[in-house]
Amino acid sequence: MKDITTLILPDIHEILADGKAEGLREALADLHPADVADLVGSLEDPAKVQVFDALGDFQRVATFEHLEEDDQEHVIGLLGRGRVVAILDAMSPDDRADFVKAMPERTAETLLPLLAQAERNDVRRLVSYPEGTAGSIMTTEYAALPADATVAEALERLRQVAPERETIYYVYVVSSADRRLLGVVTLTELVRARATLRLEEVMHRNPITVAVDADQEAVARTFERYDFLAMPVVDVEGRLLGIITHDDVLDVIEEESTEDAHRMGAVEPLDVPYLRAGFWSIAYKRGLWLSVLFLGEMFTGTAMRHYEATVGQVIGLVLFIPLIISSGGNSGSQSATLITRSLALGEVGFGDWARVFRREAAMGIVLGGFLGAIGYARALLWNTSFAMATVVALALVGVVMWGGLVGSLLPLFFKRIGLDPAVTSTPFVASLVDVVGIVIYFRIAQVLLLR
Amino acid sequence: MKDITTLILPDIHEILADGKAEGLREALADLHPADVADLVGSLEDPAKVQVFDALGDFQRVATFEHLEEDDQEHVIGLLGRGRVVAILDAMSPDDRADFVKAMPERTAETLLPLLAQAERNDVRRLVSYPEGTAGSIMTTEYAALPADATVAEALERLRQVAPERETIYYVYVVSSADRRLLGVVTLTELVRARATLRLEEVMHRNPITVAVDADQEAVARTFERYDFLAMPVVDVEGRLLGIITHDDVLDVIEEESTEDAHRMGAVEPLDVPYLRAGFWSIAYKRGLWLSVLFLGEMFTGTAMRHYEATVGQVIGLVLFIPLIISSGGNSGSQSATLITRSLALGEVGFGDWARVFRREAAMGIVLGGFLGAIGYARALLWNTSFAMATVVALALVGVVMWGGLVGSLLPLFFKRIGLDPAVTSTPFVASLVDVVGIVIYFRIAQVLLLR
User: With contacts defined as CB-CB under 8 Å, which chain A residues touch B169?
Assistant: First the structure.
């Protein structure tokens, strides 16, 4: 992907040095806006302006939409106010709202009044939907017609709406009175239908819709289930408010996966790529969780002080501490990962807790027993006593099972009480398991070794 | 999503009990095939057959495509051979190939000869592409025309090709001689263009393509970048072999995210949902990594035996072992997570290792210093000596930094040598860090406490 830009960059630089606008125009005409955006990101300021000048109207807007948020702001500063307003007016409504939301309030206050009334209201409405809801990712650019319009009229409308956009693959049929959504016709069906038919004769009734306040992750799941290119977003009364398109869903899925991955790794989610994120922003997002986990892990010391006498009597116990508690942590990580991912994909729910519990209890016996056997052999090889080896083996069974149970049930419980199950991160579970693991280990040791 | 099926299920059961085929047909007609598939999955065998009988031809095929793989096999056994062949013939080529790949060889051998020659060859070719490549997710159902065809001819072709499918949004323009891909025209553009224009006059030249042996994850990245609905797949000579559609990409992205999440949690990726996966299959996929990690973690014992004398002299050292090594593991998890996810998204590469190294070294000082300060205070509160508190603080700085460096550089290195960076899972990094963490801790203790 990066190849395209790297391949073309030397040519572009040469053309820029020549200063021939015509050559630049030709070189850029065949490029996809995503590639032009990459190119713009890599150029010096005057060259950025040259490139934007050379682009056709539609390509200019599309390129701007593909820029990273901070590059967008930077380019706004470079281009004249007139051109900026032209770009904003022509942007797709959802991208425009995202851009306005991302810019500092002062910039927004100077730019918004320059927009036409309709676009301004549109932005205001779109930015008002809470982050993470269907409303926050929908666009208001779609084709809607009354039920008695004909196929020919619908095709004609499609020719007019956003002529350079590719997002219009469905025509939504709404009631003239209150814009309630009645049905949907695909572009392919329109092309295939007789021109004189009325839309109500060809439309699918009761189309599957998304509520405007639905969670964006649920929206993504619905897309995956039904393979639509776009889905209509409606309010509680069933009135059409906008549509969500397939490309926005791709972004949502990646965003949610990244968030979950970061949480599982005990980092507050970074909303920008690692190398673009500020050092102190990362330090804060890691330090926060590191400290929480550190404070939790302190209880391992407390637990061990409680068993100080035991440790003093059987110093060999110490050798197995990391081995035993880490095995519990690993088992906990595994089940936390499996359950959290299944929750994200909607494969399990809180109602499955009993099944999960039974499964993990059995799994703990099997896996713990297996590790216990290895641990038993290892302990004997270190010339420890049979009693000591037994302590190690039993502790492993207990700790591995405890880890699996905590790791699997905690995410279910978090989901139930409305918290993100992904915060039951691998290190979080490991810390919990460490403390209890020490107690299990020393308790067994006390019973078996110090009778 | 599940709501629809739950809402409709009682009605369907009533209709099934009545045994009126007409009523069933009507009730099912409005349902999306994904919902009918869910319904079929929840019914008894005779009812499954009743439902399949009541479906229209296209809905029957689409429903079958939406069934889970084991349900598909089950239904094949219930329906007569004639109807099975009709379904297989009409399935979309990629779904059919996936189905054939998933079924036992014996079933495939009895079914394949019943297919028409063209479909059989198509299946053979599609199943031959290695899992995880563009070829393995592409379909061969697309519209391709020579460059001198007219817009009207193209629209007519679209009316004929797969009349009930919605996947045809692009017409690909190929050379008549060798099917080399010359350009692409979108359906929207066709609808808008004058009917008499030739395709070469309206097509986009040099369309962005995907190589047939490209990794499916790279394909997903290309989709995200360019927001296409479908992308053409070509061989090394640029000949059109098939297309990949947006809905397949959604599946790829979820699949890859799940795989990465599982690997990061130290589980061999499950290819079926947690509750559907067999107990022993999970036990194997967890046990494998648990054992590997367990064997690695054994070196903590070896390391501690090396410092047994030190432990004997300063028993208080033991209290801080879990606290110190887990902090290193947590820091390692964090950077491993950040880097692995960034690698998956193509945001960093091996070439960035020096930047990553500097950043993580600095991060280690900051975060380690912060935890060290807390640890120092905590140690003093436990009435340990100033020297002992200093050992704890210094060890924390060293271990947190070591964790961050290992966690960030190891995934980069794994990627470089062609391994999946996600296998540098959180527990994997933690184990590595544990052993070195113990060495760092006791070494510092020897120097500061036993002089």
Answer: 169, 187-188, 229
- The shortest CB-CB distance from A225 to any of B1, B301, B339 is to B1
Query: Given CA atoms B321, B325, B327, B328 in this order, what sign does their dihedral have?
Result: positive
Does the distance separating the beta carbons of A188 and B187 come in below 8 Å? yes
User: Could you give the CA distance from residue A95 to residue A72 in angstroms, rounded to a whole number?
Assistant: 11
Contact residues for B111 (Cβ-Cβ < 8 A; gap 6+): B76, B84, B85, B88, B100, B103
Q: Any chain A CB within 8 A of the CB of B160?
A: no
Is ipTM strictly over 0.85?
no
Q: Can you read off the two tokens belonging to residue A262?
A: 């970061």
Provide the pLDDT confidence category of residue A420 given band limits of 50, 70 and 90. confident
Bridge-based pairing of strands A143-145 and A170-174 is: parallel
Apex CA A437: angle with CA A412 and CA B295, to 5°?
Answer: 100
Tell whether the model's pLDDT for residue B24 goes beyond 60: yes
A275 touches chain B (CB under 8 A): yes
> Is B169 in the A-facing interface, judged by CB distances under 8 Å?
yes
Name the phi and psi angles at B344, rounded to 5. Answer: -60, -35
Nearest-by-CA chain A residue for B336: A265
Note whether B347 contacts A275, CB cutoff 8 Å.
yes
- Which SS3 state, helix, strand or coil, does residue B143 take? strand
Q: Which two tokens stand for residue B381?
A: 């509160």
Residue A159 pLDDT > 70: yes
| Nearest-by-CA chain B residue for A364 | B283
Using one digit for the tens of pLDDT, what is the confidence trace for B51-67? 888 888 888 888 888 88
Question: A337, B246: Cβ pair inside 8 Å?
Answer: no
- The rounded distance, in Å, linking the Cα atoms of B77 and B84 is 9
Q: Which residues in chain B touch residue A356, judged by CB atoms under 8 angstroms apart? A: 275
A212's enclosing H/E stretch is none
Inter-chain Cβ pairs, chain A and chain B, closer than 8 A: 345
Please list, in sequence order, all residues whose beta carbon lies within 8 angstroms of the beta carbon of residue A449, skipping any fewer than 6 positions away: A310, A313, A314, A387, A388, A391
| Long-range Cβ contact pairs of A176-179 (< 8 A, separation 24 or more) | A176/A146, A178/A237, A178/A239, A179/A144, A179/A239, A179/A240
Q: How far apart are CA A304 and CA A321, in angstroms?
A: 10
Q: In this predicted model, which residue has the larger pLDDT, A224 or A424?
A: A224
Whether pTM exceeds 0.90 = no
- In this prediction, residue A5 carries a pLDDT of 59
The answer to whether A262 contacts B338, with C-beta atoms less than 8 Å apart, is yes
Q: In what order do the strands lie in the sheet with B170-174?
A: B143-145, B170-174, B181-186, B204-205
Mutate to test the interface with B, among A194, A326, A355, A363 (most CBs of B within 10 A): A326
C-alpha–C-alpha distance, residues B315 and B223, integer Å: 59
Give me the sheet containing A143-145, strands edge to edge.
A143-145, A170-174, A181-186, A204-205
The DSSP output letter for B153 is H
Q: Per this entry, what is the length of chain A?
A: 451
